[in-house]
Amino acid sequence: MSEPRVELGLRENAAQFTLLVAVNALVGAMVGLERSTLPLIGEDEFGLASSAAVLSFIVAFGLAKSLTNLGAGGLAERAGRRRLLVLAWVAALPVPLLVGVAPSWSWIVAANVLLGVNQGLAWSMTVVMKIDLVGPRRRGLALGLNESAGYGGVALAAALSGWLASEFVARDVLVIGGAIVAASALAICLAFVRDTGAHVSLEQARETSRADESPPRLRDALRAASYRVPALRACSQAGLVNNLNDALAWGLMPLFLAAHGAGTGQIGLVAGLYPAVWGVGQIWTGHWSDAVGRKPLIVAGMFVQAGALGLLAASDGAVGGAAVAAVILGAGTALVYPTLIAAVSDSVTPVARATTLGVYRFWRDMGYVVGAVAVGVLADAINPPATIAVIAALAALSGAWAALELPSRAQVSLAPSGP
Predict the structure, then answer these.
(1) 8 A C-beta contact, residue 255 and residue 58
(2) Is residue 122 within 8 Å of residue 268, measured between CB atoms?
(3) CA 147/CA 51 separation, integer angstroms
(4) What pTM value is reported for the model?
(5) Which of 168, 368, 374, 379 is deepest in the core (most CB within 10 A)?
(6) Which pLDDT score, from 0 to 100, does residue 258 have?
(7) Architecture field, domain 14-194+216-405
(8) For 256-307, how does the pLDDT look when each residue is reduced to its tens digit (9 = 90+)?
(9) If you ran DSSP here, which 8-state letter would residue 208 be given?
(10) 20 in Cβ contact with 145 (< 8 Å)
């Protein structure tokens, strides 16, 4: 039997692309199950009184996800995208079991290390594989669809788990939901997902001036995306601050609302609104960035996030004000999230893409670590509204940085400079 013809394009690869969209919705759902309930479980079931202690699970999650992202790009070139995607769901299987039998909060933290590995591998691979399939012309749209599906899954799972937790035991909701999601995703990936390495080779071959270029060494990509290349450096810092904001929304917002009398169902609604707007908005913003460029959306998105957090700080924990802030925060994040990945992909050649995106995603998800530590410490030292205001100012500074350093379009070579 002959091998199927390899072509680039969204329409040409519609079946595999759609399948990967569905898989990424499950990736989002896996983490969304925790959004509206786990901080409250820390307080109610494990008696944690400190915000920093409650948010320790986000630190573990973010650190594991960041380091996994960093290694995923290089591993993808050697082991293949599909194998890492399958491995991601194998790592997810013990998560609901650990949450279900946890006798102490340290078990929850350990479960979130595995969840971070799952998210780092699975989300990285669905992103890279979709970019591989569609080629350069519709990259923003592809990323918008990918991120929309993922954060749509986050939103639905957050809202549904919050509602179910108001009727049943919150921990049971997480355990049963997590087991269903992880097992379903693993079965789909094993049965139906195909690797996309041949699409990368085809795209690289079409770049005749760089057809024989090799993937960069990790240390070269790390230098480039961390500080050497202004465009990549600007994307890395904006991604970090974006996820710092997300750590606040994930960890502190439920505690902030609960302290002002909000019920679990109301918290679930607010926790679901933010990723819902973020998820749906990315379909449009990713496509829009293909037409107008990446910089305008990135800069505007960081300033919109700053405004949303300022509104949340001034809401005094009222559910209505927090809901409006969540919608605006979701809109700002929708402008930024797929556009940053597309901007990084624009700046490198196809063979450098997986490794460089791994470095970018390392810095972006370090925002969870920095955010959880900073938010927890500040909330304990001052108060939640002042903490939120500080993070809002940081988001505005990040937007200014992006405005100064992001070019309209650029491409650099990250190929090894020597043997």
Answers:
(1) no
(2) no
(3) 29
(4) 0.79
(5) 368
(6) 87
(7) Up-down Bundle (1.20)
(8) 898 888 887 888 888 788 888 988 888 888 888 888 889 999 999 999 999 9
(9) G
(10) no
DSSP 213-268: PPPPPHHHHHHIIIIISHHHHHHHHHHHHHHHHHHIIIIIHHHHHHHTT--HHHHH
Q: Tell whether the torsion through CA atoms of 324, 282, 73 and 293 is positive or negative.
A: negative
SS3 state at 269: helix
Rounded to whole angstroms, the Cα distance separating 344 from 361 reads 10
Phi/psi region, residue 80 (left: phi>0; alpha: psi -120 to 50; beta: rest), is: left
Per-residue pLDDT at 149 exceeds 60: yes
Which residues have C-beta within 8 Å of that of residue 41, sequence separation ≥ 6? 108, 170, 171, 174
- Nearest of 29, 171, 160, 46 to residue 98 by alpha carbon: 171
Which amino acid appears at position 24 of this protein? N
Residue type at position 285: T
254 CB burial (10 A radius; 0-12, 13-18, 19+) = buried
- The rounded distance, in Å, linking the Cα atoms of 126 and 20 is 6
